[in-house]
Amino acid sequence: MYRERDAYRRLARERGYRSRAAFKLLQLDRRYHLFKRGDVVVDLGAAPGGWLQVARQKVGEEGFVLGVDLLPIRELPHGNVATLVADITEPQTASLILQLLPRKADVVLSDASPQISGVWSVDHLRSVELCRSALQICEKVLRSGGNALIKIFQGEEFESFFSEFKRRFQFSKIHKPGASRRGSAEIYLVGKNLLG
Questions:
Q1: Is residue 16, in this structure, part of any structural domain at all?
Q2: What SS3 class is residue 159?
Q3: Is 55 exposed, middle or buried (0-12, 13-18, 19+ CB in 10 A)?
C-alpha cells in the first residue's frame, strides 16, 4: 500500500504535477470522457492545483479553467487558467465564479475535502456539506448537458446525497480510481449531461 502511494507521489514529481491527485482525474477522465478541447472548467477545492494542471492539458489553449479554493493557489503559467480565493459553502460564490467565466461551464469538478478532525462521523457530514455546496454551484454555473465530478466520503448520508446527485444528470456513476489510497473512504460521483 505505501509502495503504491509513494509511486504516485514520485510519478507526480517526475511529470510536474502539483499533487498525486492529478492521476485520479486522469484515470476518471480516461474512463468517463469528462473533457473536450475548448471546454470551460470550474475546479472547486482546487489547491494545490494538480487537477487544474490536468484540466488545462485536456481543454488546451482554446479552453478556460478556473480554480476555486479557500487557500491561494500558486499561479500556473497559462493565460487561460485563473484562480479565485473563495468559500464554496457561501451562497455568493457561484455569482463570483460566473463573473470570471467566459460562458457557463462545460465541466465542474470538486475534489474538496473538509479539515479532517479524526472523528469519522463529523468528517463524513462535513464532506457531505461540501458536496451539497458543490452541487448547488453546479446548478448555477454548469450549462445544461454539462458534466460534473464530485468527491465524497462514504458514510451514512452517502445514499441520500447520491440520490440528489443522480436526479440532476442523465448518466451517473460511483467510481473509485486506482490512484485513490486503498484504505481511503473517498469515492467519486460522475454526472454526465446535466438535465434542465
A1: no
A2: helix
A3: buried
pLDDT in tens, 131-189: 999 999 999 999 999 999 999 999 999 999 999 999 999 999 999 988 777 777 899 99
- Residues recognised as catalytic: 151
**Domain assignment of residue 82, given as a range:** 21-194
The residues facing 148 across adjacent strands are 108, 191
- CA distances to 48, 64, 87, 95, 184 from 92, rounded to whole Å, are 23, 21, 9, 6, 32
Task: Find the CATH number of the domain harbouring 95.
Answer: 3.40.50.150
Spatial strand order in the sheet of 81-85: 81-85, 64-69, 40-44, 105-110, 142-153, 186-194, 169-175
DSSP at 190: E
How wide is the angle at C-alpha 27 spanned by C-alphas 103 and 13, nearest 5°?
A: 95
Q: Does any domain span residue 8?
A: no
